[in-house]
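Is it possible to get an amino acid sequence alongside its tokenized fold?
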Amino acid sequence: MANADITPSDSEGRSETAPLRWKRILLKLSGEAFAAEHGVAAIENRGKSKEPQVGLNYHTIRAIASEVALAYNAGVEIAIVIGAGNIIRGERAAEAGMERANADYMGMLGTVINSMALQDALEKQGIPTRVMTAIAMEEVAESFIRRRAIRHLEKGRIVVLAAGTGNPFFTTDTAAALRANEIRAEVVLKATNVDGIYDKDPRKFSDAVRYEQVSFDECIGKNLRVMDQTAFAFCKEYNIPIVVCDIAQEGNIRRVVQGDNIGTLVSSAS
């Protein structure tokens, strides 16, 4: 079977001496991030092109893996959900005339491609990684089983959770919220192409104001669309905080889990 089990020595060499705000996280990555430039170039070019970014930028994927590795080596247990916007968006395909359910299933398969690419990049850095999918495909990944995913995390493996929820009509944001609750993650960290949640689009409005902290009710009431409404509502119901931060800023993932005030914190209390 793909991703065969190995011994508990996976976590050897990790440092757990630095103080951590969150020990187990669900990291949500956008598919577009896998096609974009990374670091300074991404920041400088942000918002200049209105065309969707497609395909796989292997340099960027390796850079993202390095960012994840910084947090992993600090002792964080990490599960990851990745979108597929660099390959296909079900909603856009449906608008073009495709049956929505079919388009969404194609998007789920796209997340598997991205997950396998990230697994490869992580393992090349010596980090044990498992891909688990909501749609059975034993030749390339394990099927998602909640207890097995938790055991992988406890043994010091990164778990990449692919194929969304396994159902059409749900986004990978919602999948991230669902999986975070299932694996008992302490926070959902959404690493995206903006440095937090704003009251309006900062790429269009120079006077946009970034929230340092905002409540779930305010996100839902003001339709702040960094994550979809279903994901916000789910995290509110199960009291799972969300942190939105900039993936292009090097070291942000590690700094967030170590408690630095980066990006926007969404929680039950504003």
User: Anything to note?
Assistant: The domain at 8-267 is CATH 3.40.1160.10 (Carbamate kinase). The mean pLDDT is 89.
